[in-house]
């Protein structure tokens, strides 16, 4: 006896085949959901093809599971079901982000595009109406691309009119270069754009805003090597010039102290290096505090004179 297919098979008999064929022609990705595991190209143990791995599901079962998720989400929108749909169609976001990123500058991170595209995918799932008979993949790719472009425009500091004029000027340069077999002049480019030379040069000033260059490349321009790190000051680093000046001052002071009398050297040493008071120094030397003050004053005057002579 032949086994009759279930209701899900009658609802979409060729959906999976069309899905695979459409993505194969467009270079698009195949989606995968850990809750609805696809075993593409495999058959049931009783079929003529190779056996299905234990726990795996056929392509037909995957499509049936996705349709069941859509029915459940349509009847009662639930965040858990929506997250399962997002996980299943997530490869679409990576595919669209890769296509959009090919025409963008290198400083634009594809990961940021994917993050923006996820919001577009969630919006597409919440607004999609399966009853209208449209393919979700086609609808979602438009929403994902729109979300990525909207996010890029929100981060762009250049007006859209300037971007449009820049693309128009680039196409005009290509046409003139192919026609003249040389680089066109400003007058020829202005005539091609149907504007005056003054307007063209004013437009050049506006285009400067669209040029983005890494700060590190700008600093290293014209140099054989070096990076931005080499140009940043370190406030906590020791100044080698200050270290040399301090060492020289210490050397000169030591020489000047060595030329003092023995009693003056003792007073200077006890007062500045041992941190004794004048009264304590007087007890060490056996003199009064006023006498120690006189010795200290004389020693300082002699040191100042010696340092002036050395400098």
UniProtKB/TrEMBL annotation:
Keywords carried by this UniProt record: DNA-binding, Sigma factor, Transcription, Transcription regulation
Low complexity: compositionally biased ranges: 1-10
Biased composition (Basic and acidic residues): 12-24
Record flagged with keyword Isomerase: no
Highest rank taxon of the organism: Bacteria
Ranges in a coiled coil: none
Chain segments carrying region Disordered: 1-55
InterPro entries given in the database record: RNA_pol_sigma-70_dom, RNA_pol_sigma70, RNA_pol_sigma70_r2, RNA_pol_sigma70_r3, RNA_pol_sigma70_r4, RNA_pol_sigma_FliA_WhiG, RNA_pol_sigma_r2, RNA_pol_sigma_r3/r4-like
Domain RNA polymerase sigma-70: 112-125, 277-303
Purpose: Sigma factors are initiation factors that promote the attachment of RNA polymerase to specific initiation sites and are then released.
Family to which the UniProt record says this protein belongs: Belongs to the sigma-70 factor family.
NCBIfam families named in the record: FliA_WhiG, PRK06986.1, sigma70-ECF
The protein's name in its UniProt record: RNA polymerase sigma factor
């Amino acid at each position: 006896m032949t086994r009759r297919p279930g209701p899900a098979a009658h609802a979409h008999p060729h959906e999976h085949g069309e899905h695979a064929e459409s993505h194969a022609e467009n270079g698009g990705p195949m989606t995968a959901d850990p809750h609805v595991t696809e075993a593409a190209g495999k058959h049931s143990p009783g079929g003529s093809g190779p056996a299905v791995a234990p726990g795996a599901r056929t392509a037909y079962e995957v499509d049936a599971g996705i349709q069941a998720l859509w029915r459940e989400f349509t009847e009662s929108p639930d965040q858990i079901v929506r997250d399962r749909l997002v996980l299943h169609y997530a490869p679409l976001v990576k595919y669209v982000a890769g296509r959009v990123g090919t025409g963008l500058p290198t400083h634009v991170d594809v990961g940021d595009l994917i993050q923006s595209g996820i919001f577009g995918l969630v919006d597409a799932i919440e607004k999609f109406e399966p009853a209208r008979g449209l393919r979700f993949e086609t609808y979602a790719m438009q929403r994902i691309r729109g979300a990525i472009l909207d996010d890029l425009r929100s981060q762009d500091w250049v007006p859209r009119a300037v971007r449009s004029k820049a693309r128009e000027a680039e196409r005009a340069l290509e046409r003139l270069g192919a026609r003249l077999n040389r680089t066109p002049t400003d007058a020829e480019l202005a005539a091609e754009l149907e504007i005056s030379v003054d307007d063209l040069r004013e437009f050049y000033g506006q285009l400067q805003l669209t040029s983005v260059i890494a700060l590190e490349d700008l600093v290293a321009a014209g140099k054989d090597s070096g990076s931005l790190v080499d140009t940043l000051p370190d406030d906590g680093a020791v100044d080698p010039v200050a270290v040399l000046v301090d060492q020289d001052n210490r050397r000169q002071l030591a020489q000047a102290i060595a030329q003092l009398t023995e009693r003056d050297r003792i007073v200077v040493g006890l007062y500045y290096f041992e941190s004794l008071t004048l009264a304590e120094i007087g007890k060490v030397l056996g003199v009064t505090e006023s006498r120690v003050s006189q010795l200290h004053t004389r020693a300082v005057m002699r040191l100042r004179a010696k340092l002036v002579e050395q400098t």
